[in-house]
Amino acid sequence: MEDNLHQAPSTPSQVDTGDAAASTAASTAASTAAAASATKYLSDLFTTTIHNIYYDPIILPVSAACTLLQLISTMYFARLAPSGGPWKDTAIFSAKQVVIMIMMIAQSVLGILYWFYHRNDDDVREKGGVLISRLVLGSLLHDIPAGILSGSVDTLMHVHHAGMFLVATICSGYWSSGEPILAQFAPFFFGVIELSSIPLIVVDALHPHKQPHWHSYHLTKPWLVKLNWICRILFATSYIVLRVVYFPLVVVMQVLPYSMELLQEESHKQHALPVEIIMIMSILFVMLQLHWGRLVIRQVQKALKGDDENKENKVKKGGNKGDPPKIKAV
């Protein structure tokens, strides 16, 4: 008892040290719990997405159909097609272009149908958006590995495709318990703007640096030279109209304001993350479209100038004096 009475009281520094240790322990525990919760959320999200893709009636069948067409076309170009053309040396790439052409036409037609003809019916637009989003997922499951196998080293395009895959899963409802998020805009972003990709498929195939075999071959065929020229003009025009002008307008005037409204609604509070991701991705996509658009406009300006460098390149490539100006693909 006497020892207890004569025990020295705790000093302020000891109390502060104890409080700091307790605070640090509490902060560490909270951080650990938050990290565990985030890990579980992402794990559940990944599992759910894989499950939905596997059992979806559209995605894997579309991917399988694209892959089968890729294999058949590759075998045809490599073994059965007549000799004397570049298709034998570029069989995988040539087959990939065939598959992409079919998918781009399908997506463009559906996009135009749902975006313009059902512009006053958001429910129909949303259903169409979910359909197109799942077509895109199926197509990308084929296109990404096929692009790598065909020798594509366009890193920015691969990143772009990864972003499209992410947005398509959100529009399909995989991040929100089956409820589509902003899918009514998918007919535009996954459909209408792909009109500019149709002529680009031809332009890419005949590009002097990307596909020198096809480029050299097309210079020996006047009809291919004309087709290439027409597709370059169509690509540049449609890209500027749809992706440089229309794309940012839809994002700024429709997607972002509507997303902000969703975030204010109590019913969508639990799905705030996918909405925010689409908002961020839409801004990044606008920047990417403007970057590519700047390159397209620059090439158009060079072609219209008809300067000495272009004339010199034309002669080196075997072009005639009356050949149309060439616009480089991006």
Derived structural class:
mainly alpha
**H/E topology pattern:** HHHHHHHHHHHH
Number of self-contained structural domains: 1
Summed over residues and divided by their number, the pLDDT gives a mean of 86
Q: What is the makeup of the main sheet?
A: none
Number of helices: 12
Shape: globular
Low-confidence stretches: 315-330
Number of strands: 0
- Using only C-alpha atoms, the radius of gyration works out to 27 Å
β-strand percent reads under 5%
The share of residues in helices is over 70%
- Distance, first to last CA: 88 Å
How do the helices and strands line up, and which of them pair or pack?
Layout: H1 2-5, H2 12-55, H3 59-80, H4 91-116, H5 122-149, H6 155-171, H7 186-189, H8 197-205, H9 212-218, H10 222-264, H11 272-305, H12 308-316
Describe this structure in words.
It is a single chain. The protein has 330 residues and is mainly α. The chain has one domain. Helices cover 75% and strands 0% of the residues. It contains twelve helices and no strands. Helix 3 packs parallel to helix 5 and helix 4 packs antiparallel against helix 8. The longest helix is centred in the first third of the chain and has 44 residues. The protein is globular, with a radius of gyration of 27 Å. The relative contact order is 0.08. The C terminus is likely disordered.
